[in-house]
Amino acid sequence: MPAPSTPLDFHDPRSDRAVGALFGAPLAAALIGAPPALATPFTDPAHHPARLILAALSDLNGPHHLPQAPADPVQHAWAQVLRTAARTGTTPTSAPALEHTTAQDPMGASWRALTRTPRPTHDPAHGSFACTHLTDALRYAHTSAGDQAALHTAVLAAALWGASALPLGALRHLSRTTDPHTLTVTALTGARGPHPRLWPQHPVLVDEPRRLPPFAVPHPLDPHVLLGNLDHLRAHPDTVDAVVSLCRTHPSDAPHLPDHDWVRVWLHDRAGANPNVHFTLDEAAAALAALRAEGKRVLLHCWAGASRTPAVATRYAVATLGAPPLPTLATMIRTVGGHLDNPALSRAVAQLSGVDLPDPARTLFPHGVPPRRPELPAPHITG
């Protein structure tokens, strides 16, 4: 009997892709203007489509082939494509059972949309991101084969590109009728099994010594934006009207917030863990700008408020307020007493403005990186 596989780590891109898969159908419904109830069979395990999706996502550290293959050959082929996308971030080279279905068969149409929709050139400086293939493919499916094809396509495409590739405006819209955290729990429980003491079933870093003092400071260019940490959200919920979270969160962190005023972003503070980093940073900044355009006072935070937070705060200032990228990035890091333990975030922010930043520390701080806030943890600890 084979030994059980190691539980999937949340930093692993397969976690990103598993969560994306379960968000796919509700996302598609939001983007094409379909009733939210149309997506329920894809997310509620009481329905066959959701069970098929969860079977395809089960034990992603395990074997390549489906643990329990459906008898129907089209369903089998579709679920195998889904599993391959979630496990590897690639699509199979062929799927004959799907290729030769009727034009209106939603599973076949989703395969054709996934594989025939051109992938955009990845050119962050000009606002072009490869992962927007996700939304392009589902719109292609909707135009060619209807609502069900769009929903099936979104499941496959979101499994291919991940939750970090989901457009946050659409996620905010769907959160009015669908609980985002429940989808995350369902996806990761299916992909790695239940772990009641781990996120997302349990809040992150709630015990000493990993609690940080609540921290928040005004954005230097927009005083109606606070730059802070997760413990500020937990301790001072009434200081803002809306929140953009750049780290793992739990409903208990902000029980007072309506879901549509709480934008939760899939972004890690670890090198190599963000496959869609340019898109994710840009979307987070755009979500912040949208909330501010509604007149809301917003908390932008990650776990410590020292790395992801200044990165997105900079992109917001550049894209929305017209600030220069490199001086602003240095200012934001100083403002929060932050660090450059993960310089990939600073490089990505600069690249969004067409600026190459091979050595962020030397370029931003030629006289030495300023000291970090004294309470900040060792670099390997992150929320």
From TrEMBL:
Protein name (Swiss-Prot/TrEMBL): Protein phosphatase
Region (Disordered): 86-109, 363-383
Domain of life: Bacteria
InterPro entries recorded: Prot-tyrosine_phosphatase-like, Tyr_Pase_AS
